[in-house]
Design goal:
Layout: H1 4-26, H2 35-54, H3 56-59, H4 65-95, H5 100-131, H6 135-152, H7 164-172, E1 185-188, E2 191-194, H8 196-220, H9 226-238, H10 240-247, H11 257-279, E3 284-285, E4 288-289, H12 295-316
Antiparallel strand pairs: 1-2, 3-4
Helix pairs in contact: 1-9, 2-4, 2-9, 2-10, 4-8, 4-9, 4-10, 4-11, 4-12, 5-8, 5-9, 6-8, 6-11, 8-11, 11-12
């Protein structure tokens, strides 16, 4: 088994190499990403994540096969929640008229920022859990609350152009009157100006930060191992750009996605609370024994929910009523107020 510092170092090198190949080789020149290209790269990213998970027990010390199950369960959770993130990107790019050939560049730097932010949040969360184990109850309650809100407001459709963050950015940040190729900043008439590309990047980064507030506690509900939480999270994020280009055109077909995500968030929240109670020596509530949910059962429940959601969505098709918003398009309720 490898030591933790060496393990994290190797993982950082792997991620850096993959990102460098993506930016400097595959997408060296800005271009509109086709469905075929997005499908190929989605397969590559998913394949890398699967290979990493299968060989995890060879270099990471853990509880046998549970390490692999925890990794894949965390990966599936993050991947499913990132689909909702993708649909909000669709709204942002559409509202701000981002040319298709520039969208990959925005998402690439968005992913870089997301990796940094999530790494900081994961290690901060792990440190807090190590010192204050009662914080797991807060994580669990927050996930249950978010699940309930997601369910009750699953058909809401935010107007990105009316977002508070966008108005603040436009008020304080001098910008050009249009896009300037793939540049985030340009100098015109002696002034350094941000382009709309930079404004879009701010919205994308903020969106991911808000989404991380759900996804990271959700993975801590599966495992307390920071390495598993980090790697499953980052591998899911690495494939976010390809996933966006793959799903952007079918947002209206996944009308029940938000309902499924609401159930998943509620499930992992309840699981986290139950495990916290068990750790505190509480085996029953009001005479009712607490159920034990092992990693394999968790993975089965989450995959099952996603399968039901996809099949039901495809059978139902897009909403029939004019103007009705697909349940899968909007972000988790409450987020749109600040995006």
């Amino acid at each position: 088994m490898l030591s933790d510092p060496l393990l994290y170092g190797i993982f950082a090198v792997v991620v850096t190499v993959l990102l460098a190949i993506d930016l400097l080789v595959v997408h060296k020149d800005s271009h509109a990403v086709s469905i075929k290209e997005a499908g190929i790269w989605s397969s590559i990213w998913i394949g890398c994540a699967i290979l990493f998970g299968l060989f995890l027990t060879r270099f990471h010390e853990g509880d046998g096969g549970n390490v692999v199950l925890e990794y894949f369960t965390g990966y599936v959770i993050e991947k499913s929640l990132s689909v909702d993130n993708v649909f909000l990107f669709v709204l942002i790019f559409g509202a701000l008229s981002v040319p298709r050939e520039l969208q990959h560049r925005v998402l690439f730097y968005g992913v870089l920022g997301a990796i940094v932010m999530r790494t900081v949040l994961i290690f901060t969360g792990a440190a807090l859990i190590e010192r204050f184990d009662w914080i797991l109850y807060i994580f669990g309650a927050f996930l249950i609350y978010t699940g309930v809100k997601t369910w009750t407001q699953r058909n809401q459709h935010p107007d990105v152009t009316e977002s508070k963050l966008l108005k603040r950015v436009n008020r304080v940040l001098p910008t050009t009157d249009g896009y300037r190729g793939d540049h985030f900043w340009v100098r015109e008439n002696g002034r350094l100006l941000a382009t709309p590309m930079f404004v879009v990047l701010i919205l994308v980064e903020f969106t991911d930060l808000v989404f991380a507030m759900d996804s990271i506690p959700a993975i801590f509900a599966i495992t307390r191992d920071p390495f598993i939480v980090l790697t499953s999270n980052i591998f899911a994020i690495l494939g976010l750009r390809a996933l966006y280009f793959l799903l952007a055109g079918v947002a209206d077909k996944l009308r029940y996605l938000k309902a499924g995500l609401a159930v998943i968030l509620g499930f992992v929240g309840v699981k986290l609370v139950i495990e916290s109670l068990e750790q505190d020596g509480i085996e029953s509530l009001a005479g009712v024994p607490l159920p034990h949910i092992d990693p394999l059962a968790s993975l089965g429940v989450i995959v099952g929910i996603l399968a039901v959601v996809v099949v039901a969505s495809l059978r139902a098709g897009p909403p029939d009523r004019p103007g009705e918003v697909p349940a899968g398009v909007g972000p988790v309720p409450g987020r749109e107020k600040d995006v």
